[in-house]
Amino acid sequence: MSDSNTTRTTRSDIGVAMFTVADQDAALAFYTEKLGFEVRADMRFGEQGEMRWLEVAPPGSHARLALNPPMGGQPGGGGIGIETADVVAEHRRLSSIGGIDIDPEPMRTPGAPLLFMMRDPDGNNIAVVEAPPAS
Fold first, then answer.
1. Angle ∠(24,26,29) on CA atoms, nearest 5
2. What's the total number of domains in the chain?
3. Are 115 and 88 within 8 A, CB to CB?
4. What pLDDT sits at residue 135?
5. pTM score over 0.85
6. Contact at 8 Å (CB) between 27 and 21?
7. 68 near 75, Cβ under 8 Å?
């Protein structure tokens, strides 16, 4: 749809997805120790430093995942997809670690890539999806 009165966006990328978590330290441990993510930001802010901005990401990822306390309501309920070249090997790796709420096996559905789902301790959904072939 084109509208000559519309100004073109200056946004160029999805850089940060956000999950609400009950305990930032517990979430940090899950994402770094269980999933192998790295810390991208961990800083205090607010007048008395009472708030915390915490970001993690898979090594090499441009996008980051912010782990935030709920701003009203309950934690959890979000979802992201992360890519891997080998879904089966990643499922095997994560299953061997233990302590991760993970689907019993990867699934392939017509029209969708090979994938499996897992959930973080707060109930946020993470789809581990086969990366599309390089073009």
1. 110
2. 1
3. no
4. 61
5. no
6. yes
7. no
CB atoms within 10 A of CB 10: 5
- CATH code of the domain covering residue 83: 3.10.180.10
From first to last of its 135 residues, the chain has per-residue pLDDT tens of: 555 567 676 676 778 999 999 999 999 999 999 999 999 999 999 889 889 999 999 999 999 999 999 887 788 889 999 999 999 999 999 999 999 999 999 999 888 899 999 999 999 999 999 988 876
Parent domain of 62: 16-130
- Residues paired with 121 in a beta bridge: none
CA distances from 104 to 90, 101, 109, 117, 120 (A): 13, 9, 15, 9, 15
Give strand pairing partners of 45.
51
Q: Answer yes or no: is 83 within a domain.
A: yes
Whether 2 maps to a domain, the answer reads: no
Residue 47 lies in a domain: yes
